[in-house]
Amino acid sequence: MSLKNSTFSGVIWTVADTFFLKGLTFIASVMLARLLGPDEFGLIGMISVFIAIGIAIVNSGLSSSLIRTKNADDSDYSTVFYLNLFLAILAFLIFFMLAPLISHFYKQRVLTDIIRLYCLSFLFSSFSAVQLAILNKKMQFKKITILNIPGTVGGVVLGIVLGYLGFGVWSIVWMYLSTQFINSLTIWFFSNWKPGFIFSVEKMKYHFSFGYKLLLSSLINTVFNNVYNVVIGKFYSVQLLGYFERARTFNEYPATILTGVIEKVTYPLLSNIQDDKLRIAEIYKQLLQFSFFVTAPVMFAAAAISYPLFELILGSQWLPAAKYFQIICLASMFYPVHAFNINILKVYGRSDLFLKLEIIKKVVIVLGILVSFPFGILALVWSSVIASLISLIINMYYSSDMIAYKSFQQIKDMFPTFLIGLFTFFGMYAIVLLLQNYSLYFQILMSGLFGILFFILVNFIFKPMPMLFALKLFNHTKL
Question: Its topology with respect to the membrane (predicted)?
Answer without folding.
Answer: Multi-pass membrane protein
